[in-house]
Write a structure and sequence with these properties.
By secondary structure, this protein is mostly helical. The protein folds into 2 domains: about 1-185 and about 290-320, HUPs (Rossmann fold); about 200-285, Orthogonal Bundle (Tyrosyl-Transfer RNA Synthetase), CATH 1.10.240. Helix content is about 55%, strand content about 5%. The protein has 13 helices and 5 strands. It has helices at about 15-30, 40-45, 50-65, 85-95, 100, 105-110, 120-135, 145-165, 205-215, 235-240, 245-255, 260-285, 290-320; strands at about 1-5, 35-40, 75-80, 140, 175. The protein has a 3-stranded parallel sheet. A two-stranded parallel sheet has the order 4-5. Helix 7 (about 120-135) packs across helix 8 and helix 10 (about 235-240) crosses helix 12. The longest helix has 30 residues, at about 290-320. Bound molecules: adenosine-5'-diphosphate (ADP) and tryptophan. Adenosine-5'-diphosphate binds near residues 7, 142 and 193.
């Protein structure tokens, strides 16, 4: 079973990205033939500086590998290394109703946030459909913000099959992550780079200390009183990164009272540093060996192109291009 997902290189990764996207992707590589790629064409809709795009792309490749993406198991590549995806996007665009793209939440959202309404931003879901359909992907794990894009993908595949013959494209199954699994940011809202409330995945110990001690919100419960556990951002983050025994101890201290938030924050910092330590070390090794990362991506690109070729050939024949 081919499992495919893409991540945009649009900034520094945070703890929400890790638990929401990378960690599930790393776990899924055991379940089937994983195709994971860096969506650098997509990132161009918002990242307009070439130095930035290159740096974000590089960083995401290193970080994904540091988090456990296994290039022996998964095919890992840059979207732009398989430019054939643009041909399939064109073919899909010829059956895609404009009205469907006009209804896309992500497009309306970006415009509302001041991004200029380029054709690329408008056609973003068509390229995403091509990413998925080019590899005969069966399963596409994504966050719930991408649900509509997957519906568009399934719809376009259906339209192509109807017009040019059943079996021209494989209709993929979405795998939408649980909405309750959203990681809160330092201010208690969803952690997101657009909200400036992130705990970066690879902050230095000093940066992490400052963020947790100074920016993480807590309520005004006095030190001696029991602390409310519900909606506690601190406790939610701690549960993700601390061991079972430590979590039980913190819950007991919340319930009993007599321990202040400063103390809990120190425990959270320790848990954060400990949890990501092995990944940080792996990341340092990868940063010191750029040739290795290049070789992984080159091998991934080769495999991805080989997988794409027969699909594109099938589509070209079906529509009358070949
Ligand atoms: P951001 O909101 O910081 O811009 P992206 O939209 O680039 O993050 O998300 C990249 C991936 O990380 C997506 O799969 C998304 O579902 C996941 N993700 C982002 N923020 C969170 C969060 N707070 N909790 C869980 N998953 C998240
Ligand atoms: N749009 C996705 C996001 O922002 C990234 C993406 C691009 C993707 N192409 C894809 C995800 C194909 C899954 C499959 O998160």
């Amino acid at each position: 079973m081919r499992i495919l997902t893409g991540l945009q290189p649009s900034g520094k990764l945070h703890v929400g990205n890790y638990f929401g996207a990378m960690e599930p992707a790393v776990r899924l590589q055991e379940e089937g033939e994983a195709f994971y790629f860096i969506a650098n064409y997509h990132a161009m809709t918002t990242v307009k500086n070439p130095l930035e795009l290159r740096a974000f792309t590089r960083e995401l490749a290193v970080d994904f590998l540091a988090c456990g993406l296994d290039p022996e198991r998964a095919v890992f590549f840059l979207q732009s290394a398989v430019p054939e995806v643009n041909e399939l996007a064109w073919i899909l665009s010829t059956v895609c109703p404009v009205s469907q793209l006009e209804k896309a939440h992500s497009y309306k959202d970006k415009i509302a946030h001041g991004f200029s309404p380029s054709h690329g931003l408008f056609a973003y879901p068509v390229l995403m459909a091509a990413d998925i359909l080019l590899y005969d992907s069966r399963l596409v794990p994504v966050g719930k913000d991408q649900k509509q894009h997957l519906e568009i993908t399934r719809d376009l595949a259906g339209k192509i099959n109807e017009a040019f013959g059943e079996g021209t494209l494989v209709v993929p199954e979405p795998m939408i992550r649980d909405a309750t699994a959203v990681v809160p940011g330092l201010d208690g809202q969803k952690m997101s780079k657009s909200y400036g409330n992130t705990l970066p995945l690879f902050a230095t110990p000093d940066e992490a200390r400052k963020l947790i001690m100074k920016k993480l919100v807590t309520d005004a419960t006095p030190l001696e009183a029991p602390k409310p556990q519900e909606n506690s951002t601190l406790l939610s983050l701690y549960r993700l990164m601390a061991g079972e025994v430590e979590v039980a101890a913190m819950e007991a201290d919340y319930e009993r009272g007599g321990v202040g938030y400063g103390d809990f924050k120190k425990r959270l910092l320790e848990a954060y540093l400990g949890y990501f330590e092995p990944m940080r070390l792996r990341r340092d090794e990868l940063l010191a060996d750029p040739g290795y990362v290049d070789a992984v991506l080159a091998r991934g690109a080769e495999k991805a192109r080989a997988a794409a070729a027969p699909v594109l050939d099938r589509v070209r024949r079906a529509v009358g291009l070949a």
